Amino acid sequence: MCKYVNPETLKLADKKTKLTLKCDDGKLEKYFIIPLRDPKRSLLIKAEGEEKNRKVWNERTQKEEDL
Prior knowledge:
The protein is an all-beta fold. The protein contains no helices and 6 strands. The protein has strands at 2-5, 12-22, 28-35, 42-46, 55-58, 63-66.
């Protein structure tokens, strides 16, 4: 699961998160999880389209990694 952070401050830039699921055949399925006003509910939207190569921040190692 990916959280969107400001690359300079490493603080949350947005409340949405991105969930990437890897299928048995190696295919990746990507979804956005957007919180709603009710804290017990969220909206799940399938991510469409080609995405640029992005880096992710590993909170355990405190370093950038390729997704």
